[in-house]
Amino acid sequence: MHDDEHVKRGIDLERPNAARVYDYMIGGKLNYAVDRMFADQILGVLPNARHMALVNRAWLRRAVRFGAEQGIRQFLDIGSGMPTVGHVHEVVQAIDPTARVVYVDNEPIAVAHSEIVLEGNDNATMVQADAEYPDEVLEHPTTEAMLDFGEPVMVIMAAFVHFIPDSRDPAGLIGRYRDVLAPGSHLALSSGTWEGQGEETQRSVALYEKSGTPLTLRSPDELAALVKGFEILPPGVVFTPEWRPDEPPEDPPARSGGLALVARKV
């Protein structure tokens, strides 16, 4: 792609992008040299990073399947990242083809490729917006056309809040989304954690600091505090492989480096 086209699309190739780095970690091809270089640096200090990304993606699929099994037919995926096999719409539309999904991301490559993947799917769409500005997401014409907030919605924040420091009030941000949701709506949230981690995690966090995309890792209690107004469903705030696994995890759960929860608005 020509440099002028990158600029026009708002693609910054000077710094790694979290969505593209994550795409590389899970085996995707929608990334650039700057993203792969950074990801390889992370893998150099945290060899487990690719495993962490993959088990988080597996948790996401289980969580949205759970939501669909509870009767939810509307899904709002905040910070959705790159389209991959087994993405939200594929999971829930396998249960009910009429289930509606709105993906939200501000990364131009994620948006462009999602639009290609979703072409011809009338019940799934992509919104380019900054999810830290809920009105930008909730009042977007596409969101308003696709989702009925008078009925239950599952809001998904997979590997999202650890990019929001306490100074930017993640609890308040989540509360803005919560306030528009109907009773019976669900929140699926995962985040990196210090819980059970070693020095290699500290080194990887230091690299993210230098990249301009710092991480704020949180404990189970800190994550629970972010979702006030929701009832956290069993099994609670646990390592991602421990959240309603299809079969017992083969690896120690802490190796996932991430915590997850699903909560319901009552």
Low-confidence stretches: 1-9
Please give the count of helices: 11
Query: C-alpha Rg, in Å?
Result: 17 Å
Largest sheet data: 8 strands, mixed
Shape: globular
What is the helix fraction of residues, given as a range?
40-55%
Query: What is the terminal-to-terminal distance?
Result: 48 Å
* Percent in strands: 15-25%
Could you give the count of β-strands?
Answer: 8
Mean pLDDT rating: 91
Would you summarize the structure shown here?
The chain has about 270 residues and is an alpha/beta fold. The chain is built from 11 helices and 8 strands.
What does this 3D model show about the protein?
With 266 residues, the protein is an alpha/beta fold. Helix content is 41%, strand content 15%. The chain has 11 helices and 8 strands. The chain has helices spanning 3-9, 18-25, 33-45, 49-69, 88-95, 108-117, 134-138, 141-146, 170-180, 199-211, 220-225; strands spanning 74-78, 100-105, 124-128, 154-158, 186-192, 230-232, 238-239, 258-265. Helix 6 (108-117) links the parallel strand 2 (100-105) and strand 3 (124-128). Helix 2 (18-25) crosses helix 3 and helix 4 (49-69) packs parallel to helix 5. The longest helix has 21 residues, at 49-69.
What is the topological layout?
Elements: H1 3-9, H2 18-25, H3 33-45, H4 49-69, E1 74-78, H5 88-95, E2 100-105, H6 108-117, E3 124-128, H7 134-138, H8 141-146, E4 154-158, H9 170-180, E5 186-192, H10 199-211, H11 220-225, E6 230-232, E7 238-239, E8 258-265
Parallel strand pairs: 1-2, 1-4, 2-3, 4-5
Antiparallel strand pairs: 5-8, 6-8, 7-8
Helix pairs in contact: 2-3, 3-10, 4-5
